[in-house]
Structures are given as structure tokens and as C-alpha cells.
Specification:
By secondary structure, the protein is α/β, with parallel strands linked by helices. It is built from 12 helices and 10 strands. The structure holds 3-hydroxy-3-methylglutaryl-coenzyme A and magnesium ion.
Length: 319
């Protein structure tokens, strides 16, 4: 990384989707809209809003249609994206005007089967018509590879499995593959090893990193990614996400932590950190509990934007 010219980083916000999909209580659609508005006001360039999956599998996102209807044509929003697991999901997303969708599969067979009820080969076969239709409609497709370092059912995952999956998804037509440390087990040496394996054949601008901070290594992994040329990072407002049944365990990398580090290092993101903290405070108010993001905790006291007026801020002692 040349000193003095860090450049621009794209921060891809996944809180409304990856964060809220884990919430035990259903978050009302209007609260989701308010949160997405606040994230848009903070200047995030892309927001993954929901999932067009089977609502029986993911009840917290069962309002995907209503949410996208409420967001459609709303002024001031950046690119709104959603997960789609198959043609049916794509049909639903297209009916609500989405211009970008994300497919997802796992680097391990067992996680793939548990998550989308298909083998990896079946998943790739099911994605082919999704990519074809998106190409015909001019809709961008992002792709996730989950459990890149560790699978909750199989244990360690090899870089070769991640490389093979990444290449298949790029060949199908993904503009970018996001590498997901779904259970937050990766550390910087593994990040370097994985990226060395991938970057031998895949350009850095076709890769993104989606780190979970379950064991506190997410930012360190992103730093290795930055040094190796990765310029898109996924994160979740306040660190929303993770397992609601594992008290104290933090989930996705918090967007405030990522943006704080990037700005400190001189990277441009287009994000207003003060407004981002206000969005994090709004998320805490809507959920009625403090979120794990550390920069959010540190900066909330001096936030000049404040949470949206209709919300009840979480008190400093709760935080
Ligand atoms: P299935 O049960 O195998 O589906 O589920 P099926 O094709 O056999 O159909 C069964 C029923 O599902 C039918 O309805 C279909 O119409 C319906 P019925 O006739 O029984 O009434 N169905 C759908 N309904 C709505 N939308 C759809 C859809 N597709 C089928 N798109 C399926 C297969 C993939 C749908 C299911 O397994 C599913 O929804 N899985 C989603 C699980 C999920 O969202 N997991 C969390 C994603 S996060 C992640 O993976 C990691 C990531 O964040 C990265 C990281 O963190 O590292 C991306
Ligand atoms: Mg995730």
C-alpha cells in the first residue's frame, strides 16, 4: 500500500439483511425503512436490505415484498440489494424493481445443504438460470462464498474449495464474490494464505471480504485484505448480527469500526461517520438494546446528528 495514496474503499452495508435475519423478534417494516433511510443518509453506497428466501426458513425477513415496495422510488437511497437463493427468489426481487441481487453458497458441502437445502453442485445448477435472467434484464449479480475458513459442521475449509467456488461463481457472471467468514474463526495469517491462493487467478477488484467479528479478528483480517488490494468490505451497522442465542458473542464486523479505521488510515468511503453513528444509535433504539460495535460505543457520546427524533435512545448505562 503506497504511503499517502490509500484511495477509495467501498463499504457494503449488510445490517438490514445479515443483521436483522438473526433477530429473535420481528422488526416492523417501517422500522427497517427508518434504519435504511438513516444508513443512506450516512452515505453508504450499497445496502443489502432483505432476502427473497423462503419466509418459513427466515421469518425475520418475511416482509421482503412490503419492505422493497416501501423502498421503491424512495428518494435518496443508494443501490438496494437482496439475497436470492433461486429463480423464485429472483422473480420476487425483480417484481419489486431491484437492479442488483446476491446469490449465496458455501465452500463446504454440509453448510450449503443446511443453509439452502442443496448440494453445492445443485446450488450452482440452480444459479445458472438466475444469472441468465439477470444478464437478460441487465441486473447485477453479486455472490457470496460462506464459511471460507471454518464450517460449523465440517471444521476447517481448504483455500482450494474457496477458490473453486469463487471461480465457478465468477464464470457464471457474478461481478464480485464476497468471501464470508460466517462463523468468525479466521485470523490474519489465514487471510493472507487465502488471498494469495485467490489472487493468483482472480483480480482483486472481483473480490470482497465479509468478516464476522465473533472472535475479534474481523478488522485485522480486513487490514490484511487492504494491504493485498481488496477494496470492498461488507459490514453491519452496530455489529448487528451473529447468533442471538450466544450472549456476548458479536457477529458481523461493525460498519462504524470499519469506517473509523479506514478514515483514520486516509481511505475515502463517502460515508459520514457522525451520521453513521446516528444510524447505529437508531438501530439500538429500534431494537431496545446496545449493539456490540466498539466505535459506536465510543462515538455515540459525541455524536452531533443524534438518532431519529421518533426513536427512544438507549441510555449510556445500558450501552
Ligand atoms: P426448499 O425447502 O428446499 O425449497 O428450500 P423447495 O424448492 O423444495 O420448495 C419448498 C417450498 O419453498 C415451496 O413452497 C417453494 O415455493 C418455497 P410450498 O410449495 O411448500 O408452499 N420456496 C420459496 N418461497 C419463497 N421464496 C423463495 C423460495 N424458494 C422456494 N425464494 C430454499 C430452498 C433455498 C428456498 C431455502 O433453503 C431457503 O430459503 N434458504 C435460505 C436460508 C437463508 O437465508 N440463510 C441465511 C443466509 S446468510 C448466509 O448464507 C451467509 C452470508 O451472510 C455470508 C456470511 O455471513 O458469511 C451470505
Ligand atoms: Mg454474514
Amino acid at each position: 500500500m503506497a504511503a499517502g495514496t490509500p484511495g477509495r474503499v467501498r463499504v457494503y452495508e449488510v445490517g438490514p439483511r445479515d443483521g436483522l435475519q438473526n433477530e429473535p423478534a420481528f422488526v416492523p417494516t417501517e422500522d427497517k425503512v427508518a434504519l435504511i433511510d438513516a444508513l443512506a443518509t450516512a452515505g453508504l453506497p450499497a445496502i443489502e436490505a432483505t432476502s427473497f428466501v423462503n419466509p418459513r426458513w427466515i421469518p425475520p425477513l418475511a416482509d421482503a415484498e412490503n419492505l422493497c415496495a416501501a423502498l421503491r422510488d424512495r428518494p435518496g437511497l443508494p443501490r438496494i440489494t437482496a439475497l436470492v437463493p433461486n429463480e423464485k427468489g429472483l422473480e420476487r426481487a425483480l417484481a419489486h424493481g431491484l437492479r442488483e441481487v446476491a446469490v449465496f453458497m458455501s465452500a463446504s458441502e454440509s453448510h450449503n445443504k443446511r443453509n439452502i437445502n442443496k448440494t453445492r453442485a445443485e446450488a450452482l445448477a440452480a444459479f445458472a438460470p438466475v444469472f441468465e435472467r439477470c444478464r437478460a434484464e441487465g441486473v447485477a449479480v453479486r455472490a457470496y462464498v460462506s464459511v471460507v475458513w471454518g464450517c460449523p459442521y465440517e471444521g476447517p475449509v481448504s483455500p482450494a474449495a474457496v477458490l473453486e467456488t469463487t471461480e465457478r461463481l465468477l464464470d457464471l457472471g457474478a461481478y464480485e464474490v464476497s468471501l464470508g467468514d460466517t462463523i468468525g474463526v479466521g485470523h490474519p495469517r489465514q487471510t493472507r494464505e487465502l488471498l494469495e491462493a485467490l489472487l493468483a487467478t482472480v483480480p482483486a477488484d472481483r473480490l470482497a471480504m465479509h468478516m464476522h467479528d465473533t472472535r475479534g479478528t474481523a478488522l485485522a483480517n480486513c487490514l490484511v485484505g487492504l494491504e493485498m488490494g481488496i477494496r470492498t468490505f461488507d459490514s453491519s451497522v452496530g455489529g448487528l448480527g451473529g447468533c442471538p442465542y450466544a450472549p456476548g458473542a458479536s457477529g458481523n464486523l461493525a460498519t462504524e469500526d470499519l469506517v473509523y479505521m479506514l478514515h483514520g488510515m486516509g481511505f475515502e468511503t463517502g460515508v459520514d461517520l457522525d451520521r453513521l453513528v446516528a444510524a447505529g444509535m437508531l438501530a439500538e433504539a429500534l431494537l431496545g438494546r446496545p449493539l456490540p460495535g466498539r466505535a459506536l460505543k465510543a462515538l455515540a457520546a459525541t455524536c452531533t446528528t443524534g438518532p431519529a427524533p421518533s426513536s427512544q435512545p438507549v441510555s449510556a448505562s445500558d450501552r
